[in-house]
Structures are given as structure tokens and as C-alpha cells.
Design brief:
Blueprint lengths: L4 E3 L11 E12 L6 E12 L3 E5 L6 H8 L7 E6 L2 E2 L6 H10 E4 L11 H5 L1 H5 L4 H14 L15 H13 L5 E5 L7 H15 L5 E5 L11 E6 L2 E7 L1 H4 L23
Parallel strand pairs: 4-9, 4-10, 7-8, 8-9
Antiparallel strand pairs: 1-11, 2-3, 2-5, 5-6, 10-11
Length: about 270
Amino acid sequence: MTDKAVPATDKPAANTKNAAVQIRGLSKDFGDGSEKRRVLSDITADVNAGELTLLVGPSGCGKTTLISIIAGILSPTEGDVSLFGTPLASLKGNALVRFRLKKVGFVFQQFNLLPTLTAAENAGLPMAAAGQSRADATKKGLDMLDKLGMAAFVGKLQSQLSGGQQQRVAIARALVHGPQLVVCDEPTSALDAATGRTVMGLLRELAVKPDRVVIVVTHDERVYDFADRVLEMEDGRIVATREGKHQSQKAPHAPATEATPATKPTTATPA
């Protein structure tokens, strides 16, 4: 890539006014005593509304752990995350479940489909959980699958679907309820080039809305064209922020500065 990066610092990004996701001093440990491992270390960053942000870095650097905390699936050891002005630490039990159900869509790397449900029923699960009838929820799931080129497979069970088809069902499930935050863990890894561009186009369409934000963890360089911002991780830290290719196609910006080396935490180990 030829884009220049700006250094990651201990201070928040400048434009907090437009930040949909605010991360402050975030650290995460796993294990206890001599087995304790620090997998995220003192991360401070903002993710802006109306943008598609990529989170990139080598395997084991903490990307999945970070997005799991942003989505409210894991709790941090230290620090805070706020989504759309709501600190996640202020939400407990059912309040957090309701918040996630309404605000968050998550595409898991392992899909996490229910094997006894059809593709359309799996895709419509968030609508059923929100109280819609099974028929209405399944219809919403069917409509979203159609947008992803899966109309011929809506009645199939998980065991009857290929890996790429299962991935599209997982993506449909994450988008069907129109969440404000969509978090995707390697959403194009099992897809061919054409289908991958279709999926990223849908995510791009969702992200450009002023009250929405999309975060994508990826190793797939094919999706860089869709990004407004790229956050680079290494050893449990965000070490650089760069403008994405999609953003660079807009009005000219002042040239970015080269990234300065980030100090690596001595306790960070792969997540």
C-alpha cells in the first residue's frame, strides 16, 4: 500500500465530535496469577460515524479481542468503551443484552449458525429475538439473503451449505435488524472475489449513513478499496492510523506523516 500512516498516540483522535465508538485506555488480560496474559494494552482510539473502518494486523495481535469488547461480548480489564454516547460499563445484565440486540450486528469468523434452522430462519434471528413473529422474522431474513445472492438457498440447513454460503447467512443475520454498529471478523475470507465485493458494497452502503459505523477485521487486501480508515494493530496495541483508499478518493487532504515506532508491551501475547 502507498498510503501514509499517522502515528498512534495515547491521546484520542482529534474529531471526537463525530466519534460513534470511543475507546479509552483499554486493556485486556486473560488468565490469573502466573498464567495471566495481557492481550490488549492501553488502547485509545475513536471510530467515526458514517465510515467503514478496517482493523488490520498479524494473526494473534488482539484484533478479535478488541472487536469483541467493542461489541459488548467481552469486558475489558481496564479502560472504557462508549457506543453512540453510551458507556458499555453502565449497562449490566439484560440492559446490555437489549442494547446489543438493538444497536449491534456481529459477523463471527466461525459463523455460529444454528444447525436446526434454515438459512432464512438463521438470518432472521435478531428480528425474532426483538419480538417479531417467526414468519415475519424469517421473511426479513429471506429478503436480506436475496440481497446477498442467496435466494436459492433460503430453505437449506447449515449442513447443506458451503462455507461461503454459511458466511453470507452470518452476514445477513448481522445486517437484518439495521444495527448502528456492525462488527465483522474476516467477512470475506470464505468468499470468491465477486461475492466479496457484493458483501463489502452492502457494508459500505450501511456505513455511509451518518448514524452508522462499520468495523471490519481483515487480512484480505481486496477490501481496502472500501475503507475510509485503517487502524493497524501489533502486539495488543494500535500502532498507526491511515486513511483508507475510499476516503482518499474524496476531496484532497493534507499529506499524512509517517508512523513513528510504537512501544510494544512486554506482556502482550497472541489472542
